[in-house]
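pasting for ref. prot 1 ->
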Amino acid sequence: MTKPSLHIEADWPVARKVQTLQDFLGQHYFDENGLMYAMWYWKGEELRPFRMEDFEGYSYPSSSDGFTPRGHQNNENSAWNSGIFLWSQSLRYQATGDEQALEYAAKAFHSIDYIFKLTEAAGHRGYLCKPYDGQVSKETSPDQYFAVANGLWNYRSIAPKAAKERIDFLLPAMIDWWRERKYTITFFDMEFPATDSNEWHNPSMTAMNLMAYLITGDMKYQKEALRLVGLGGTLPTYYDMERDRLRRTGTVYQDYYLPGYLYDESRRDYVIVDYESRGAAWMAVASLPFLFQHDLSRTPIFKHALYRVWKHMQYGLRDDLLSLYSIQYDVERDIWLPLNVPPTPESEKNPAYNWHFMAYHSEVCWGDAPSRLPHVSLMAHQYAFDFCPGALNLAKTLLHRLDNQRLMWMIDPDGKQLHPLDTWMGHTLSSEVPAFTLLAYWTAQVNGIALD
């Protein structure tokens, strides 16, 4: 096999970019066991899985699991990446009938199944872990499940018989795992409370229950789907929830905010620090196409929610459509500003995830967030056009601007935003941009939407 390489020019037609990324993922991005990679080391012409020496002298996330930094970067989003790639190739086959789409979909499905077989061998059922170092870990997150559930559901109608039977076992097992834990998990040694009413997670948890009902006919899943969709209320965004907290308590200030973050000291009670919510908001609408198809009499609310999420995901976008990782947001004035807060001895002593990157704020840009926006823009165009008239143009613009720089996980525009302990993050291929570009493109193609 040829040495992996990747090159994208902004002025290429979108279809050429898609074929380049598709073949890179399909032909190079699986390890010897068939497990799909998350992120790769990428500096100059060197493009490969991470090695231990890549982290010498740097800071990196860690937990009591004891996984290696190499294993973390290579496999943090293996399930997620597999699910998005599976989803995209399933749509590709529906749009084109291309046999290569089935080949790539089968590889993505094997990666997902490999993770489940790892956890099943350890005595679990329906547990989709983050397979650090190719092993079972105690870490998982809702987004991994949502990407995989939608991937499996879209693959189900074109999968070979044995794969379909496996899917019909896995989808109910996946939501059973969450229900048995009352939708609560511990992630990096921190407990996250019930996600059944969470503004990001409720719609996809609802969809997973409904998928299980459609597969099994068991009314308990339908009943749970109806309970959850009621808990979702108006499906508020994170900023909507913060405005509600301001109304109830008179402040949105959090004790863990680093000193010096405010654009105006008099706005202390009105300003939040926001990290990844604009990218994470994709989770709130990821399953809406499925829910629109299987209407739960919530269509008008879903359309309004789709508009609010689409708008929310655009906060933090610079004029060049790179997205800042950290911003400050004034929930009363509905404005956002950049954030620059140097580390302090206190913040460096105990940063979140034991990671120096969380000890300060800078104007580093996050490649993942805008990569999800074309997919949401296309959903907004298709299902909520009256509220989102510019959605299709935004999707086209983002896809047309895609180049090598925008394929990266973290983008340091002037070389001064990542502190020395964290500079390795700027040499990392995103686990999101390639697969999400494919998902957006094939979502457009299967719905007859032209992007070039």
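and prot 2 ->
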Amino acid sequence: MTMRCRSDRLRRRLLLVGLLLLCGTHRRASATRPAAGPIRVAGVVTVYRHNSHADVLLSRLLQTDTLDGKGHDSPLQLVSLYVDQRPKGDLSGMLAASHRFSIYDTIADALTLKTGKLAVDGILIVAEHGDYPRSPNGNKQYPKRRFWDQVFAVFRHSGRVVPVYSDKHLADNWADAQAIYSTAKALHVPLMAGSSLPVTRRRPAADVRKGGKLREIMVLTYGPTDAYGFHALELAQALAEQRAGGETGIVAVRCLTGDAVWQAQRDRLFDPELFQAAWNRLSHNSTHGRPLADVVDQPRLFRIEYADGLVTDILELNASITEWVAAWRYGDSNAIESTLFWVQDGRPAMHFTYLLRGIEAMMVRGKPTWPVERTLLTSGTLDALLTSCVQGGKRLATPYLRVAYQTDWRWHQPPPPPPTRRWTDQ
């Protein structure tokens, strides 16, 4: 064995150890493959264009974690790809030729490499972006259920499963999300999903005290709701699940829009101190000292009521902010904490690297890094909130969202990012 091979093997092992530490797990790692060997994964995506989610996730397996060939290599090796739509600007063919992986016409072929049996060690489903219809409540209907049904079919036929990560929500509606979750549980599929916001850098480095008694959470976000509002739900749930007793589930939701939002503010429906604490964490805003009501385009207030009495209020303030911030109040001390959930607005968009670290850790260990129940809950909550919006702000009881779970996942501050490049840079 050459010195270079020994060095590469040692570097890969150290990287895998670092992944597990960074993702904050306290369980003993039990890798499903030798640390020295590549973990062969299949990609199942809607579109693969520059800066699409497929690009900023899967391209890190090809172009290092900084998307320029100068960063760290992933322990995951992309060996196959299924692309549902190939609009103008599609990158998949060029990348397949330059990085020597195969593109297949069916999901089954991508997972089996046309051998008839499952032939990969993990699967990344990235169903985000593309030309798809919208549901009656305005949620974009990505083909996640179709993708999952075909993945499950390969698992059943092969008699074995591998870890799967599904980008963002499990599905655009509760019925599909619950069906995907239940089937994965029945087949014992190691499953993760969700947003990059829970794992990204925070300014300051703040988190809900583990086992703390929470009274209320306030999140400021911007739209569109089905795309960016989902990130707000995920970061809020990542905070909420740390509270005393763990997650108890959601009993009701309500969406207020337009003038009803400002009336709710005047009526102190949500905590004004929490709002101000969150607002003060913004690095910039576009109000220029004017009242929010004069600036914000179509405000929305999402109110989420938990079974144990916790309330989360999410304010969508379009045209005034383009960041995510949160504040929370403890029920025992009345103390308030707050932080900004940072994203890198440009290449290499390192918040996706921080997300990939958690995915890699799951693929290595064969166990989810954070609970998929978080995203089951946020998927159903988004669907219910959008339904409340189209029903004129009606409070909707959600007994089906009584999803209770415990987690030992804890957020850890990732390392500082490299300099930001323009989104147009390759």
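The chain has two domains: 3-196+349-369, 199-342+378-401.
The CA atoms of residues 284 and 321 lie 7 Å apart.
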